[in-house]
Design goal:
Radius of gyration: 40 Å
Oligomer: single chain
């Protein structure tokens, strides 16, 4: 029977330890629970006038930056050249002729 008494005593000690741990978890939840109630924070909305003020301020900042930098940093790329329709037709005809020559060579082999 003394063995059973020791088991009960160990179980009570374990229960006390676990209840203390649960209290600590409860305290942590109460501290952080308010901040993370939903798991996601609610987003604050900004008025249209507020957005307009922010946009105007950003435009002013960019204007100031562009005024100081000048055109020194701007690199213009050459325009991409396009091929005329007649040039495309000549190239296509030449390619067809090359393929016809390859196919003819295969047939004769």
């Amino acid at each position: 029977m003394t063995n059973l008494g020791r088991v009960v005593q160990m179980l009570r000690k374990e229960q006390a330890r676990l209840s203390k741990e649960m209290n600590a978890i409860g305290a942590a939840l109460s501290a952080f629970g308010a901040a993370y109630a939903n798991g996601t924070a609610t987003r604050r909305k900004i008025s249209a006038a507020g957005r307009a003020r922010i946009a105007a301020a950003q435009r002013a900042r960019w204007t100031k930056v562009k005024a100081h930098s000048g055109k020194a940093n701007v690199v213009t790329l050459p325009k991409k050249r396009t091929m005329s329709a007649s040039a495309r037709k000549r190239i296509a005809a030449a390619q067809r002729a090359r393929w016809a020559k390859v196919k003819a060579a295969k047939k004769s082999d």
